Amino acid sequence: MDTGAPIPMRTDATILLAQWLSPAFPVGAFAYSSGLEAAVAGGLIVDELQDWLADFLVHGTGRSDAILIRASAETDDPAEVDETARAFCASRERLLETESIGRAFCLQLANVWDLPVANLTYPVALGQGLRALDLPVDLAIQMYLHAYVSNMIAAAQRLMPLGHTNGQRILTALTPLCAEVAEDTKGLGCDDITSQCFAADIAAMQHEVLSPRIFRT
Amino acid sequence: MFLTVGPDITCLDHISTKQPRSHGTLLITSKTLGDGRCGLGVLRQQGSAKFLSVSRRDAVEGVVINTSGGITGGDTLRIEGQAGEGAVLRLTTQAAERIYSSNDQSSGTVSTHLTAAPNARLDWLPQETILFDNAYLRRSLEASITSTSRFLMVEPVIFGRLAMGETVRQGQLSDRITIRRDGRILFRDATMLRGDISAQLDRPGVGNRARAMAFVLYASPDAEAYLDRIRTLLPPTAGASLVTTGALVMRFLAPDGFGLRQALLPVLDLLTGNDLPRSWRL
Q: What number is the average pLDDT over the span B35-43?
């Protein structure tokens, strides 16, 4: 793909993706729990965590973000994809999460890689980065989903009696699912976005008035 | 049964699989008549879609009736409702809409198109849709409103005839909601449940063992004012959020239709000013 933009540095694509999707990348992902905090307050237990995260991947945000990343990576003008991403946010905090992380992600892309992006939702921002630097989309989606689950497990460890080893077991068990979602969303566009995570949506809504709380969502 | 069916007789299969397809379209509009009165603009009914008007002067209110008695694979139902400038249109359905088993996995299609002009009030308050086991339904709702319209919609769904102990082990529900305000996309929701729907509803992030659910949206300049009061009315299995200025979104999960109605009624009472259509009280 030739976008006409200069590639600012020669970095191995996988390493660059690891950098962007690392918990150390300054987008503040650690501050968000996607409603998990409220779900735990509402009775979600450790034994259900893996299924809950699998639902996110297959039935919820994971799948729709995968489609949004693909749609964004295919266009020079992501305005419409970004509008779609916002319209599908079923709660105010879901929007806050994808907007805030996306804005911070855009700042890094603009300041470090000189890309003309600003104020895009998270998956749309990533898609634009992939397009500009010609990075592998399928791998990026897998790593995005993996980073997402990993972040949620880190959040879970602060919310419920989940040890490091069991956290890594859950992450390992869900890793093939990240690849499956990436594979299953090939060729799909914004009109294929669906979400069935009703219980997770409700938890995200309830989080708005949860007190006390340690996460922003 | 009086029929004796031998191994080479297949006519019974033909009798039971040949279901007639029903099609219905309905267009209804309301307009202001002056002096705070509101009346019917256009009413067009075709096929299985009928409209039964409730007599009142301040609104066009009525019941959409699907005379085919339910929806099965290949059936289509298209409902269009428009509230003109400053007018009030309030639509409900006669009873729960039953989505029957589809013999060939073809979907029944229900599409709803709603328009609320400036300062209009439009309430779309259908009763529950009940998916039978092996039901296939493709449903869509598109609404075009303005920043001065008041728009309320609810879409309750029950999975299986629960009183009969039925679970939906096979089927498909494809549901799409698109709301535009002043020509811009305000909100979208899309759902795809297929295959063993009950197993999916059992999952903690999906239905958390619910067998009934509802989506409610209230878009209005005064939407935010209702948020705190609605939250106090909600059970632990429901949530409300002001997704953007002037747009409240609610999701409800419940073990069955009765529980869903119990959760919905106080919220719909509040958002309709205790003026819910009578069919909701039966």
A: 93
